[in-house]
Amino acid sequence: MFKRLPNLKRETVTLSFEGEAIEALVGDSIAAALLAAGVESFRNSPVSGASRAPHCLMGACFECLVEVDGIANRQACLTTVEPGMAVRRQVGAPVLDISAGGRS
């Protein structure tokens, strides 16, 4: 279980996950904010459909991929929260936008 350290006195920001408001601490990664809010599934495997969640929290495993403000394949563990950002689970394999240089 993910638990915040006691006595963290930082400003907060609000973002949404799947349309629900989540309060996060300024400087949190999306992964830390979602885990602190009790979110257990960040995406679904494009192969089996199984729920996936952060594993390494340092950008090596890609288990925390989410969609941020309509952009797929964002690593939640490496992306800092910003006020008002809209985060969604990444379900299945995202469609690549070749016109964006191969990025989706």
Major sheet attributes:
7 strands, mixed
The helix content is under 10%
Q: Compute the CA-based radius of gyration.
A: 14 Å
- CATH domain class name: Alpha Beta
Are there runs of 5+ residues with pLDDT below 50, and where?
none
In one word, what is the shape?
globular
Which quaternary structure do these chains form? single chain
CATH architecture term: Roll
Distance between the termini: 32 Å
Q: Tell me the β content.
A: 25-35%
Number of helical regions: 1
Q: Give the total of domains.
A: 1
Order of helices and strands: EEHEEEEE
Number of strands: 7
Task: State mean pLDDT (0 to 100 scale).
Answer: 88
Label the structural class: mainly beta
Could you please describe the fold and organization of this structure?
The chain is mainly beta. It has a single domain, classed as 2Fe-2S iron-sulphur cluster binding domain, sarcosine oxidase, alpha subunit, N-terminal domain (Ubiquitin-like (UB roll), Roll), CATH 3.10.20. The chain is built from 1 helix and 7 strands. Strands 1, 2, 3, 4, 5, 6 and 7 form a 7-stranded mixed sheet that branches. Strand 3 and strand 4 form a beta hairpin. The longest helix has 7 residues. The N and C termini lie far apart (32 Å). 25% of the residues are buried.
